[in-house]
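hiii so um. not sure if this is the right channel but i have a protein structure encoded as tokens and i wanna go backwards to a sequence. like what aa goes where. can anyone help
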């Protein structure tokens, strides 16, 4: 592993961007620019094809944000050229925006207050991020795909590997920040056919490392294959309330959907989340702690500062069962008169910044999985994340899971049910948490949208978790 290099493209633009901000400061009460340079490759292998392509969310560009007459305006662009010509173009565009906003209904937003800070951040990455050996990586993926295809009944095994290098720079009157880091992601998807019935399963891993992450997946195939075979022809669960044990992946889905979107504080600004009315109240069992933050873990949603120049933080959302904090972007924080938490994120430099989750997870306690199973008279071990939804205005939740493994009299019976729909009222679900494991597992292969758009990568997780909830 080596220290991530700062983008030569961004370093080459820095002086011009400083000059641009200095010019814009003459006409606006605030001006900042975010510069991004995101590159990467996607490798895909199955039994018939192999491919290498540019990562889908690669980008290179800039977005300026200014403040005038009580409102913020933004302008994105791809090329700098002559700074004075660019400044004139941005000034004319944004002054026009400001005039329109001044006469329109808009949210009252105070001027951002920024502490002076100059920092350079670099994560550790594999040397492969700068000199990838495509044939070596494809060879690893081919061997992994062949391993999956060797199992009885597997009719296809697709393996994908993403390698992403992220560089960003933020400049304003008081801030001069630059960061570089990267992560890789491997995912395995396979289909099994038995007795003319098919079932699929998948697994993977993510982290701040190189293609050695691929080599760690061989030992995971057998358990994933056994789960897929057990799901073929498996019955549905009879709807009802049950004791359940969530794997770290399933616990992460609950964390994301239960008090993830519901405490994104841009939802508080327009009274679209009920959590705003219940801050400081006890809404979960006393052993429950929940966190969100880009700081402190190395996952796909980690970074050193967000897309508004706020340094990354770790925010405790639930402390010993009490809802103690939300997460917030800078503009929503200003409107709510609170401090931003480093959760201002953009889908790209061409998109608006919103409050977004990063790494969202439950805290630990001292129970083992074996103790949780033994303490379950009748219930299920649930796993296999499919999708989830929540209603932030009424605290409803719905999670789709691939399978539930039956537990009877403190023992796994070997019987499997599929698919599984988990529903309920969030405070009830969290208040029923009775046991939590010792180790946190985070999964970060998915993207989260704000409604139906504005996709950003997130991770979520926790320890094994025991609660009571309705399944169907």
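sure thing!! here u go:
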């Amino acid at each position: 592993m080596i220290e991530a290099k700062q983008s030569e493209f961004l370093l080459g633009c820095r002086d011009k961007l400083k000059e641009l901000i200095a010019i814009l400061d003459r006409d606006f009460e605030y001006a900042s620019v975010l510069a991004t340079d995101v590159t990467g490759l996607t490798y895909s292998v199955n039994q018939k094809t192999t491919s290498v392509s540019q990562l889908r969310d690669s980008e290179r560009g800039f977005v300026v944000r200014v403040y005038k007459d009580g409102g913020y305006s933004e302008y994105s662009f791809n090329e700098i050229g002559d700074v004075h010509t660019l400044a004139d173009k941005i000034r004319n565009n944004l002054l026009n925006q400001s005039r329109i906003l001044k006469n329109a209904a808009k949210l009252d937003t105070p001027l951002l207050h920024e502490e002076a800070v100059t920092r350079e951040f670099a994560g550790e990455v594999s040397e492969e991020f700068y000199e990838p050996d495509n044939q070596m990586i494809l060879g690893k993926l081919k061997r992994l795909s062949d391993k999956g295809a060797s199992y009885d009944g597997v009719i296809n095994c697709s393996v994908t590997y993403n390698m992403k290098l992220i560089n960003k720079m933020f400049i304003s009157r008081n801030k001069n920040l630059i960061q570089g880091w990267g992560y890789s992601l491997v995912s395995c998807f396979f289909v099994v056919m038995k007795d003319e019935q098919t079932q699929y399963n998948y697994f993977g891993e993510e982290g701040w490392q190189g293609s050695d992450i691929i080599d760690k997946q061989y030992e995971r195939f057998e358990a994933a294959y056994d789960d897929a075979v057990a799901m073929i022809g498996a019955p549905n669960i009879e709807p009802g309330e049950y004791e359940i044990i969530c794997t770290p992946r399933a616990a992460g889905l609950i964390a994301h959907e239960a008090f993830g979107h519901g405490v994104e504080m841009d939802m508080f600004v327009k009274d679209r989340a009920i959590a705003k009315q219940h801050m400081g109240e006890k809404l979960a069992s006393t052993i429950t702690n929940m966190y969100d933050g880009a700081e402190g873990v190395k996952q796909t949603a980690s970074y050193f500062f967000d897309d508004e120049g706020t340094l990354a933080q770790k925010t405790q959302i639930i402390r010993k069962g009490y809802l103690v904090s939300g997460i917030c972007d800078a503009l929503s924080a200003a409107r709510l008169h609170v401090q931003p938490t480093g959760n201002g994120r953009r889908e790209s430099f061409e998109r608006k910044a919103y409050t977004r989750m990063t790494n969202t997870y439950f805290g630990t306690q001292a129970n083992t999985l074996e103790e949780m199973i033994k303490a379950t008279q009748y219930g299920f071990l649930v796993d296999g994340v499919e999708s989830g939804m929540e209603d932030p205005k009424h605290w409803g939740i719905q999670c789709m899971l691939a399978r539930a493994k039956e537990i009877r009299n403190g023992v796994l019976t070997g019987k499997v049910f599929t698919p599984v729909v988990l529903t309920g009222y969030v405070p009830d679900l969290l208040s029923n948490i009775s046991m939590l494991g010792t180790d946190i597992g985070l999964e970060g292969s998915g993207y989260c949208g704000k409604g139906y758009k504005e996709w950003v990568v997130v991770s979520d997780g926790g320890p094994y978790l025991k609660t009571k909830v309705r399944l169907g």
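oh and The CA atoms of residues 252 and 461 lie 3 Å apart.
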